[in-house]
Specification:
2 domains; 11-stranded mixed β-sheet; 33% strand; transmembrane helix; Immunoglobulin-like; binds 2-acetamido-2-deoxy-beta-D-glucopyranose; 569 residues; alpha+beta; 6-stranded antiparallel β-sheet; membrane; 11 helices
């Protein structure tokens, strides 16, 4: 090794030592624990990677904290913004308020493609196939027959130099998808510390899949690096939302160990922020509890008329003291307080009987004292034929006219029915939207193996801007971490609600009939075959019987006896 080599090596070492973050990226891990008024605790994990670079194919191929597998997919398919969620269970907006990220049952993908892309269908197909491989989910079932480009419901939150319209957006939902361990493992692999260190060690499948609701999500976009927005950074948020119930415990006590099966060993060494927050605003007269250990700090957040008190634990300060556990210990059993439902919630069901036709009913509840403007997106699969003229919107027995309406009829096996309505919900009202539909009789090979189980229909999406932030938790648009939602008062608060996904039994042919016929025919053939085979292969031959002396004696006497008899006759 020459002197120059040593010198270069030395300079390199100094370089690494002096610039603590040569890659310009940061990783934050956070967990918010929020006791809800309905004896449930909402646990929300957020793992945020911010990378100060441009969204280009070349840069995304050399990453440090950003997961390279995902980066390559995003770069190759020119994605500006991406949301993938895998959810099991239904979020109860009425009782639980609003989540940080809303997600429909099953799998959901929303992607905005770059403005320069012309063949969006091809990129969309490629993207969903690649994500299917990355997350071990059946996203490869996404195609034109179940994806759409809604015009009002989704807005680009990513920073771009030129705004794009909804023709660059694709949305698809697969309500049949089952979320399991095989999705959680690849999800954890995308984290810088994997599941070896930090908050991700709490994500054990055994304690996640037995919750009332669980949802994992990946959210990617570009954000402004400075106030003037002259440069952009990439933001990747990986989220896990869990709802645990504490009803089983008489005292309603809960702890991290009880929820996740283990305590926390320490922070991820790569993280710049590693915090646990506990929302203790519900610690009031009819519900008093203590937290052990005591939090590092307590902060007060005032947001849109709602005051929250939040206990903050810095895990890095605690990690030196061995395994770390937070417990809430109630001094007295919890009294049941009055539940105030959320401002806006919805539900949906099917009416009608038989397998020929039915009606889809969506009910929207506005509990606010002001009128609310909402956007309703109905995503109806092509095998449910919808009649637009049959749509009726009523509120207190009165006909309501939508402020705007977008409708694209579906085409068989090609595209779903797309209906988007903008409605004004009067204060303290229930609005009912009914639409008639026919059930299509499919081709026999289009039925899934378990044909009598029925077909799933994805949720409707309701988008609204709430004037106040009651029961609202989501991060503001310009924020990346949970801390950014403290004191984040804005003019309005965007919520998106998903309704139930429905199970519809389409007319199904009697698939057991051919089976029965085959069974019967086989039995008949089998029964006939034996005798026929015998008759056609065996020959009857007469054989003389050789008798021994006993037989001879016997026949002699018999002969005598019958001979005598014959003579008598
Ligand atoms: C919404 O928040 C209010 C007070 O902030 C609380 O009384 C109410 O129970 C909450 N409702 C839900 C559904 O969480
Ligand atoms: C979107 O913009 C393109 C041109 O940029 C235009 O051709 C297209 O009609 C627009 N689509 C919608 C739905 O507005
Ligand atoms: C809850 O309130 C009681 C009394 O108001 C107080 O002593 C206690 O420290 C509070 N608990 C927490 C976790 O702040
Ligand atoms: C939020 O605002 C209140 C009052 O203005 C202040 O006391 C509190 O410290 C702020 N909280 C945070 C997290 O900045």
């Amino acid at each position: 090794m020459t002197i120059s080599h040593i010198l270069i090596l030395f300079i390199g070492l100094i370089d690494i030592a002096t610039s603590s973050n040569a890659y310009n990226d940061f990783f934050d891990e956070e967990l918010m624990l929020k006791p809800l008024s309905s004896d449930h605790v909402y646990a929300y994990f957020q793992f945020t990677v911010i990378w100060e670079t441009e969204n280009r194919v070349e840069t995304l191929q050399h990453s440090h904290l950003f997961p390279r597998g995902l980066g390559e997919i995003i770069g190759r398919h020119n994605v500006d913004e991406l949301h993938v969620t895998l959810t099991e269970g239904l979020w109860n907006y009425q009782k639980w308020g609003y989540p940080f990220h809303d997600a429909g049952p099953g799998a959901e993908v929303i992607a905005w493609f770059n403005k320069d892309i012309t063949n969006i269908e091809k990129e969309w197909k490629g993207l969903t196939n690649a994500l299917a491989g990355l997350l071990c989910a059946s996203l490869n079932f996404v195609d034109t027959s179940n994806s759409m480009s809604p015009e009002f419901t989704f807005r680009l939150t990513s920073v771009t130099d030129r705004p794009v319209n909804s023709s660059h957006l694709r949305y698809s939902s697969l309500p049949r998808e089952i979320v399991c361990t095989e999705n959680l493992t690849p999800f954890k692999k995308l984290l810088p510390c994997d599941s070896k260190r930090g908050l991700a060690t709490l994500l054990n499948s055994a304690h996640i899949h037995n919750t009332n609701y669980h949802s994992i999500g990946i959210h990617f976009r570009s954000i402004c690096r400075n106030v003037a927005c002259t440069m952009t950074s990439l933001e990747l948020r990986q989220t896990v939302s869990l709802i645990y119930d504490t009803i089983v415990d008489a005292n309603q006590d809960w702890s991290i160990r009880k929820f996740f099966g283990m305590g926390l060993k320490g922070a991820c060494p790569l993280a710049t922020l590693s915090n646990i927050y506990v929302d203790i605003s519900d610690n009031n007269t009819n519900h008093i509890y203590e937290l052990t250990p005591l939090p590092s700090t307590k902060v007060v957040s005032l947001r849109g008329g709602q005051q929250n008190e939040i206990a903050v634990y810095d895990i890095r300060a605690h990690s030196s003291k061995g395994i770390f556990n937070i417990a809430a210990v109630h001094s007295a059993p919890k009294n049941n307080a009055i539940h105030y439902p959320s401002i806006l919630y919805a539900n949906r069901y099917i009416i009608g009987y038989g397998q020929e036709r039915g009606s889809l009913v969506t009910k929207l509840y506005n509990n606010h004292w002001q009128a609310l403007d909402i956007i309703l997106l109905e995503n109806i699969p092509w095998y449910l034929l919808v009649y637009l003229h049959s749509i009726t919107i009523t509120c207190n027995e009165q006909q309501v006219h939508p402020l705007a309406q977008r409708y694209l009829p579906g085409r068989e096996r090609k595209s779903p029915y797309y209906l988007e309505l903008i409605l004004r919900l009067p204060p303290h009202s229930v609005t009912k939207i009914t639409i008639d539909m026919d059930y299509l009789f499919l081709k026999w090979q289009e039925y899934p193996p378990d044909a009598n189980h029925g077909f799933y229909m994805g949720p409707a999406i309701i988008t609204a801007l709430l004037p106040i932030a009651r029961n609202y938790t989501a991060l503001p648009f310009d924020g990346s971490t949970i801390t950014s939602s403290f004191n984040a008062s804005r003019d309005d608060y965007l919520v998106q609600l998903r309704t139930e996904s429905l199970l519809i039994s389409l007319p199904t042919p009697d698939f057991s009939m051919p089976y029965n016929v085959i069974c019967l025919a086989c039995t008949a053939v089998a029964l006939a075959f034996g005798p026929l085979h015998n008759i056609s292969t065996k020959r009857l031959v007469l054989k003389r019987i050789e008798k021994d002396w006993k037989g001879k004696l016997f026949s002699f006497f018999v002969g005598k006896l019958f001979g005598a008899k014959k003579k008598q006759d």
